[in-house]
Structure to design on (1292 residues):
C-alpha cells in the first residue's frame, strides 16, 4: 500500500499561513488566549510561535477577505534533501517552482496538492532569538514560558479537507515521502481519512474527505501541542472565559488517541489544542491501522459522538447552495 | 563538533538486558510495581514490556551473580540500513560479529562501546501479539492498559557510565550515527556527560563520566516513559507504598528538562520513570547545548541538589577499594 | 429561602447501600475497575471502601432482584447531635425509628425522604483497620494506595431522583439541616434540581426531578472522588478497556464545576468518578446560586449537551409503560 | 488531649496581612507571578485575592520596614458565634478588644497568641464583586480565571513560628476552638509542630517551634491552593522563569501529604503554592496523628531531606547574634 523505501527528506511540519478577515481579533486570540508570541510583522502578516517552537515562526497570520489557509510548509533535513524532494515534486507535475522565501526562512520550493492546497518546502531557516525579556531560564528552551492563556508549546499537526482521500494519500506518500500511520476505509471501499507523518510523531498531517468534495484546498484545522491532558482541560476553561466557541472536546480521539479540543478563532479558522501523551511512532515498518465504518460509528474513544459541524465546516466555508 | 551528515540507519532504542541477583524480586518489581507485562521466558531470562511497546520485549531480565547490563540493542530502519551500519561498526574495530538473535528478534550484529558495554543492532523483529485477556479496546494500541502499579508506557532511554565521555560521544556520533543534543563541558575542558539521539526524542542514550573511571561497561539507569508529570508523581506514591528505595526526585532536570524519578529495583539496578512532556527534537540541524560547570552547580531545574549516589552508584557496583 | 440557623448535627455523608441483580459482576467492577477494597461480608452484602475512606465501609453492595439504593447514611458530629437530629426528624413524621446498626457502625435512626428513599443517621462507627498487606507507608492515610483500576479515593456525594425538588429541598434543609448551595429554577417556577451540603464540600447530596415523577425513592448515582482531573481521564481509559458503559463525560459540569465521568456498573446503577479540584464551600452565609432554564440549555461547562438518558435513567428503572 | 466538645464558631481562615519592605516588587510578584488580583488599595496597603476567594481580599500587602505578618484573621460562622468566641478569648487574657474593621470586612475582635501574633475574628464581610472585565463565565465562581502566572485559586492555610508548640496548641484548641489533626512529638517529650483546623480541610493553621524560640510572633509562610499537583509543578516552572528563589519542592509532605512548593516573595516572606488533592478531614472524632522524631528523620514523603533554612528562616528574620 505504501512505498517500502522510507524517505527522510522532510524533517518536520514547519509552519502554516492562516488567512483571517478579522486580523486584529485573530491576533489577540493567538497572543492572549493561546499564549503565543509575535516574532515579527510584515505587510498584512504577523508571525507567531509557541514558546518552544525553535524557528522564527510556526504561524503566519495574514489579513484577507476570507478565512482559510494561505500555505503550509515543511522543513527539509538538509540542502541536499531539499533539492532531491523538489525534483520528485517537479516530476509529479504539481510543482510551482522556487520562491524567494519569507521572513524567517530562505528559498522554498512551492507546489500544490491535487486539491490545490499551497505547500512549500525549504531548508534555510532563522532560529528564533528571544529578546531580553523573553530569554528562558534554561538554555535548552526556545523562549521563556509565557504563563499566559493556554500556553501552547509547539506546532503539532495540520488537517486538510480533500475531494479524494486516496488521491491525496498517494500524493503524500509517493510525492512527499510521508508514511501513513492510520486511515479510515468505508464499507463502499472509499477512504474517508488518513494520517501521515515524517517524524516520530504519529502524524504531522491528517486529511479527511470534504463533505462538499470541494477540490479548492480547504483547511480543517491546525493543532498546537501542550504538555499534558490537564493543559488541554485548562485551555477549555480559558476558552470558556474568553467566549471562544468550543466546537467539541475536550475528549480523546479513537484514531491516534490524541486528547483534543477544537475551537474557532475569531477569523473563523478551526484551531485545536491537543496532547498526545508519550505516544510516538518508533517502528520503522509500522503498517497503517485501518478503521472500518462500523468502528468509526462508535464515536470517539470514550463514546462522544462527533458533532456534525466537524464533518462539514472548513475554511474557506462552502455553502450548500454554492455546491 | 558533530558530523554534518545525519544518519538514519538506526530507528530507535529497542531493548535492554538487565542482570539481577534477585530474579524473583526483580520480576515482581517490574510486573507489580512498574506495571509491565511479561511476554515470554527462556532459560534464566524473562522478557517484559510496557503497555505501548510494540515489540515482543523492551526489557530482558536475566538472573545473574551481579547486577548490571547484559546488553542493549537498537532496531535498524531497514535491512539495508542494518547491513550498512554493521559495516561501519566493523570498520571501527569494535565489532563482535553476527549473532543468531533472541526471543523476539532476528539476526543481530554485536559490538561493544569503547568502555565495553555490549550492544547489538538488528532489524527483523516480532511484534507483540496480546493474548485475549490483554487485547486493547483501541486497535492502535499494543496492549490493554494494565491499570496496575506505575503503568509505564514505553522504553524511553538508557544511561551508561563511561571512563571517557568524549571518546564515547565520538563513538556514538561517528560509528553509530547518533546526534548529540546536549552535553556538559567542565572548566578543565573535560566532557562530563552527553545526550545522543536517533529519533525525535531529545535523547535515546545518555552517558556520564564514571566516578571511578571504570571502563567496564557500567550501567547507570534505564528509563520508562509515562504520559504526564502527574503519572511520575503517582509512581512515587506507589514506590513509597511498596518500600522501593527512591534515590531522588520527582523533580525536573535542567538538562533535557525531563521530569524524573529514580529508584533501585530489588536487584540493585537504577530505574527511572520519567515524562518529557511534549518536548521533541525536530530541528535537523540542532547544535548541542553545552552546559558549563558553573551552570551545573545550580542543581536541577528547580534547585534540587543532585544526591551524591547519583554520581557514584552504578551497576555492577565498584567499591572504592576496588579501584 | 433557607433557614438562617445553620446546623452542625451531621458530620458527613457516610455510606450508601446499592442493590444489584448481578452481585458477582458488580463486586468485580468495584474492586478491579474502581480499585476499591472489600472490608467485610455478611449475608448477601459485601462492604467496600475507597483507599482513603476512614470508616469500615462507604459502600454496601447487596444482592437483590433489581438495581437501586437500599439506603444511605450520614454520620452525626457527636452522640448529642445524633439525638437532637433524630428528634427533629421524628417530629417531621418521616421517622422510622432506631435500628441496631450494621457491620461497621452502631445504632442508627432510620427515616425516609418524602420520596421514600431510605436514610439513616448514626454516630458510633468502626474505623477501618487495614490488614498487614494493606497498611499504608504514611500513618495519616487509611490504607495503602491500591495502584489498581481507577483508584477511587473516597466517597464524595449522592444523587437522588425526586418527584418534587422543592419538597425534597425543604426536607433536606429544614429536617436534616443541610445547606443548599446551588439549584435550578425553571421558567414555570418549578425547581428542577438542588445541591445540598453539610460539609465544606460544595455538595454532599444532589437531587433532580424524576423524569417519571416517580416518588419511589429512585437513585441517580453515587460519586467517588479522585485527586485530579487527570485521574478522571485515566478512569475513562480504564472503563474503556473493561467494556464498562460510559454514559457521558469526562467533562466539566457548569453547576458545581465538578469534572465528571458517568458509567453504569454491571448491576445497572449509575456510578460517577469525579474531581472537584480545590473548590470548597467556605462561606458560612453562601446564598444558593440559582440557574435558569436558559442557562441550563447551554449544556455543560464547555458546551457538551447532556445525554437524554441522564435525565431519564435511574434505578430501579421505570419503564414509560409503567408510568 | 483535645477538648471533646467541638466548636463551630470559626468558619474559616479569612486573610493575612503581610508586611514588606519592597512593596512594589512584592505586589508585582503576587499579581504577575502568583496570578492574584488586586481588589483595592488604602494607605500603604494593597488588597489581593485568588480567583476563587469569595471575599474582598485574602491578602493585605502593607509596606513596612521589615517583612513579617501584620495580622491574620478568621471569619466566624455567625454574628452570635463571633460574640461567643470573642468572650472566650477575652477570658483567656489575650484579648485586645474590638476594632473598627478594614476594607472588606466589618467590626473585628483583636487578640494575640501567646507568642504575640496578631489575630482577629469578624463576621461581617464584603463579597468580592468583579468588575466587568473580570466577570466569570460561570456564575458560581468568584472571578474570571486569570490565565496569568501560577493562577492560585484560594487562600489555604497559614504557618506560624512559636516559642512553645504545646502552649500555642492549647491556645488554638481551648481558646479558638480549633481541632488538632496532626502533630510532632520529639523523643524528649517536647512538641515540635502541630496542625489545626476549623474546617474540613485537614489544617487551616500550622505552627512549628521557632529555631530561636523567639516569642515575637514570627511568620513562617502563607499558602495558596491550586487545583492539582500539575499546577504546582507549573508554578515551579514559572518561578524559575521569573528568578523567584525556590527554597524547596515541589515534593510531598509526609505530614498532611500536601504537595508543596516554597518560595520567598521579594519582600522576604515565605509563600507556598500547594495542592491537597481530594484529601479532607471528615471524621468528627479524628484523633491527632502523632509523628515521632524517628519518623520525621525519614524526610518528606518520598525521601527529600528538609532544607536547613526551612527550620530557621522566618519573618521578621532573627539573626543568630540577635538571640
Amino acid at each position: 500500500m505504501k512505498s517500502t523505501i522510507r524517505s527522510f527528506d522532510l524533517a518536520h511540519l514547519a509552519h502554516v499561513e492562516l488567512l483571517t478577515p478579522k486580523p486584529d481579533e485573530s491576533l489577540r486570540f493567538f497572543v492572549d488566549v493561546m499564549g503565543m508570541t509575535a516574532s515579527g510583522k510584515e505587510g498584512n502578516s504577523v508571525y507567531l510561535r509557541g514558546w518552544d517552537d525553535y524557528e522564527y515562526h510556526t504561524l503566519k497570520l495574514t489579513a484577507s477577505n476570507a478565512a482559510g489557509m494561505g500555505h503550509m510548509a515543511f522543513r527539509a533535513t538538509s540542502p541536499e534533501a531539499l533539492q532531491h524532494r523538489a525534483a520528485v515534486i517537479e516530476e509529479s507535475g504539481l510543482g510551482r517552482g522556487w520562491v524567494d522565501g519569507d521572513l524567517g526562512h530562505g528559498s522554498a520550493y512551492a507546489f500544490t496538492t491535487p486539491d490545490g492546497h499551497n505547500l512549500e518546502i525549504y531548508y534555510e531557516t532563522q532560529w528564533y532569538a528571544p529578546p531580553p525579556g523573553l530569554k528562558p531560564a534554561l538554555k535548552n528552551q526556545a523562549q521563556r514560558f509565557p504563563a499566559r492563556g493556554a500556553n501552547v508549546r509547539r506546532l503539532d499537526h495540520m488537517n486538510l479537507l480533500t475531494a479524494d482521500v486516496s488521491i491525496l494519500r498517494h500524493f503524500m506518500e509517493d510525492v512527499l515521502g510521508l508514511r501513513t500511520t492510520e486511515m479510515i476505509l468505508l464499507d463502499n471501499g472509499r477512504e474517508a481519512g488518513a494520517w501521515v507523518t515524517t517524524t516520530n510523531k504519529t502524524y504531522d498531517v491528517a486529511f479527511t474527505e470534504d463533505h462538499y468534495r470541494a477540490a479548492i484546498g480547504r483547511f480543517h484545522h491546525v493543532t498546537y501541542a501542550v504538555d499534558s491532558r490537564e493543559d488541554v482541560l485548562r485551555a477549555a476553561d480559558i476558552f470558556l472565559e474568553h467566549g471562544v466557541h468550543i466546537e467539541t472536546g475536550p475528549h480523546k480521539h479513537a484514531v491516534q488517541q490524541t486528547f483534543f479540543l477544537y475551537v474557532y478563532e475569531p477569523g473563523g479558522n478551526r484551531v485545536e489544542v491537543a496532547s498526545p501523551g508519550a505516544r510516538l511512532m518508533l517502528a520503522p515498518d509500522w503498517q497503517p491501522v485501518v478503521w472500518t465504518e462500523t468502528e468509526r460509528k462508535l464515536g470517539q474513544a470514550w463514546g462522544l459522538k462527533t458533532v456534525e459541524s466537524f464533518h462539514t465546516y472548513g475554511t474557506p466555508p462552502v455553502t450548500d447552495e454554492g455546491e
Q: What stands out?
A: The first helix of chain B runs from residue 23 to 33. The CA atoms of residues 201 and 270 of chain B lie 21 Å apart.
